[in-house]
Amino acid sequence: MIAAVTTDARRLVVTEVPDPVPGPGEVLLRPLVVGVCGSDLHLFDGDAGALSGAERGLPRIQGHEIAAEVLDDPSGRFAAGTRVAVWPLLSCGTCRLCTAGAVNACPSLRVIGVHLDGGLAGALAVPAANVVPVGDVAPATAALAEPVSVAVHAVARGRVRPGDRAVVFGGGAVGQGVCLVLADAGVPTLLVDPAPARVRAGALWGAAGTTTTTRDGLAAEVEAWSGGQGPDLVVDATGVPAVLDTALHLVRAGGTVVAVGLTSAAGPVHTGLLAAKEVAVLGSSCCTGAEFATAAALVGRWADAVGALPVRRIGLADTVSALSGRDADDVVKTLVDVTG
After folding, report:
1. What is the spatial distance between Cα 62 and Cα 330, in angstroms, rounded to a whole number?
2. How far apart are the C-alpha atoms of 90 and 93, rounded to whole Å?
3. Residue 198 and residue 172: Cα distance in Å, rounded?
4. Mean pLDDT of all residues in the chain?
5. What is the H or E stretch that residue 270 is in?
6. Angle CA(35)–CA(196)–CA(32) in degrees, nearest 5?
7. Calpha distance 67→34 (Å, rounded)
């Protein structure tokens, strides 16, 4: 089969590789559309520290935001041609976190497309438990189930309640997903991003308010938007260290900040705000299998909005351009048409 193989830091070749051989309990899939994530860029760049300490093993077929169709399922659970999305996490299943249900935080966590070969190839074998049917949802929409699943978990970590208001920093796919999840829950959200196209997309994905103001004037704008109380929840989906400090300043006393952006960078934080305001700061990583299924259903319900996301579509042969550069401000997500 043909695959896009990352052979070393900032080196990728599109070449023939052996077809995968499904093991016991695995389903053979044909990837259709694969989203390019910020973590893919970190892996391609050799920035393993941004991947939650995961060891970087190359060569690797990347791609963990996968929409696919079933080629063969020996168990008969999935019929050939069934359209699916792939929950890309594999945990040990026996550690303290796994037995408590926090499989996404397993110390031995492996991610398809990061630790194991992923979707940028003609075929892929994955455990049946990681296969989620999506019905007749378009592959380009189904591929967005994975970033939306990250958002589902981040919002769950934030424990929003009726009457809460939220601010989301970052209009990438995860930040857009947080807006979508909160809108679905009836929580008004203000999306903050300097790129006009991204805040316009946020309005499509359910943000009640948007702003491109990120420095002077932002505090006053957030205060006015939140009725003078400050937001109950602030989600940092940027991975920019300075944003976490801004979030601590903006969130109301007793509020919650959820950090979901990945980075290996460090920056100053006014830690006194944690005590003075009794702010809860929570990290959020990936999602559980149940949350992934929730996200797959969510993108189906919001298919029109999800389908309107500003994307860049490329073929597998152009994958290196997607990983070696950064998207323009008018693009929220690059999608690889694996079969194109």
Report:
1. 24
2. 9
3. 7
4. 94
5. none
6. 15
7. 6
At 170-206, the pLDDT tens digits run 999 999 999 999 999 999 999 999 999 999 999 999 9
Question: Do residues 25 and 11 touch, judged by C-beta distance below 8 A?
Answer: no
Question: Phi and psi of 103, rounded to 5°?
Answer: -65, -25
Which stretches does DSSP call E strand in the chain? Answer: 2-8, 11-16, 26-36, 60-61, 65-72, 83-86, 89-90, 110-111, 124-127, 131-133, 166-169, 189-192, 209-211, 233-236, 256-259, 280-283, 311-315, 333-337
Q: Rounded distance, CA 168 to CA 191, Å?
A: 5
Q: Nearest to residue 309, comparing CAs of 324, 291, 294, 330?
A: 330
Dist. CA 205–CA 247, nearest whole Å: 22
Does residue 2 register a pLDDT over 80?
Answer: yes
Residue 227: C-alpha distances to residues 24, 217, 220, 278 (Å): 56, 16, 11, 20
Name 130's Cβ contacts closer than 8 Å, sequence gap at least 6.
86, 87, 88, 89, 90, 112, 289
Q: Give pLDDT tens digits for 233-273.
A: 999 999 899 999 999 999 999 999 999 988 888 988 999 99
For the entire predicted model, the pTM comes to 0.96
Cα–Cα separations (whole angstroms), residue 337 to 83, 105, 201: 15, 30, 22
Cα gap 42→39, rounded to integer Å: 5
Q: Are 266 and 287 in contact (CB under 8 A)?
A: no
> Can you state the angle between helices 218-225 and 241-250, rounded to 10 degrees?
50
